[in-house]
Design a protein that fits this description.
The protein has 320 residues and is α+β, with helices and mostly antiparallel strands. 21% of the residues lie in helices and 37% in strands. The chain has two domains: 135 residues, Diaminopimelate Epimerase, Chain A, domain 1, CATH 3.10.310; 140 residues, Roll (Diaminopimelate Epimerase, Chain A, domain 1), CATH 3.10.310. Helix 3 packs across helix 5.
Length: 320
């Protein structure tokens, strides 16, 4: 079996777009297609996302037919652990991919079109010059704050105060100092462990709910206000949170700079009526670069053909 792909990166965050070899997914809606991918074809996600072809930081896109009449096409977002409802940095890469590979016609200076994601309809505005996409801005689905100043007792860290906000996916959001850590001096692995510990604790102790779609009601992860990429859906959630706390006004653009030096912009467009309290639409902008393309082969007799992930502790292998 062979799977074709294109690789991009958005401010250092990798995006692998499947362009051929993936089976046609069943389902009338994009969430049904996502369910089919997860239940019947997950070995292919593993093959593309995990080692030896991918790695723990890999993200992916599976283009699918859209159900929404305004969408040019639909997408499923994948990563090394499973499937995401939203991926902002992948959406920015998709803006470039769709125009430069003629999924939508290029219109200069700005090409506008929509993509259907599991979280809903994403509206893109792509700046185009001489046929090349220079930057992409997308308008989010309704973003909102789910919990503010939530106090949790986290083993090893004591009482930790966090917020939870939704920007296409639910995130815990807090500075490193609330773990008793320093963003710049603490080893990255220690920061990652702290974020993972909070994510696991919140998933186990606090059910999150989406106002309209039960399938979207889960905590995706924790943001310690910095990353290799500023992250598009993370920027959306952070803008909704900062707007709710009065730190940023509607129409004001903020810049989010990552440790790699890449920059995303965020701007609250306005309120969303008839949704969660305080819900807003956020415009997120950034740039993506093409990194390569290729074809993966999956041999029938390859015991690792569908990918592998090393455990945190090798004892987990012995336990089966």
């Amino acid at each position: 079996m062979q799977i074709r792909y294109l690789d991009y990166h958005t401010c250092g965050e990798p995006v692998r777009i499947v362009t051929g070899g993936y089976p046609l997914l069943r389902g009338a809606t994009i969430l049904e297609k996502r369910r089919d991918a997860r239940e019947n074809h997950d070995h292919l996600r593993r093959a593309v996302m995990l080692e030896p072809r991918g790695h723990g930081g890999m993200y992916g896109v599976i283009p699918v037919a859209a159900a929404h009449p305004e969408a040019a096409f639909g997408v499923l977002f994948t990563h090394h652990e499973g499937y995401s409802t939203m991926c902002g940095h992948a959406t920015i890469a998709l803006g470039r991919y769709a125009i430069e590979h003629e999924l939508v016609p290029a219109v200069e200076p700005v090409t506008r079109f929509s993509i259907e994601a599991p979280c809903g309809l994403l509206r893109l505005a792509c700046t185009v010059r001489d046929g090349r996409v220079e930057s992409v801005v997308f308008e989010s689905v309704p973003a909102f704050v789910f919990a503010r100043d939530l106090v949790v007792t986290l083993p090893g860290y004591g009482e930790v105060v966090t917020d939870i906000a939704y920007g296409g996916a639910f995130y815990g959001i807090l500075p490193a100092s609330r773990f008793g850590l320093d963003l710049f001096e603490t080893p990255v692995a220690t920061l990652t462990d702290a974020a993972a510990a909070l994510t696991d604790h919140l998933r186990a102790s606090l059910p999150v709910t989406h106002p309209t779609e039960p399938d979207l009601g889960f905590l995706y992860g924790t943001i310690i206000t910095d990353d290799r990429s500023p992250t598009g859906s993370g920027v959306t959630a952070r803008m909704a949170l900062d707007h709710a706390k009065g730190f940023v006004e509607t129409g004001v653009t903020r810049r989010f700079r990552s440790v790699t030096g890449g920059t995303f912009t965020g701007r609250v467009v306005g309120p969303v009526a008839g949704f969660a309290d305080g819900a807003v639409t956020v415009a997120v902008g950034g740039t993506s670069n093409f990194a390569g393309e290729g074809t993966f082969a999956i041999e029938a007799d390859d015991p690792l053909g569908h990918g592998f992930a090393l455990p945190v502790r090798f004892a987990e292998i012995a336990r089966g």
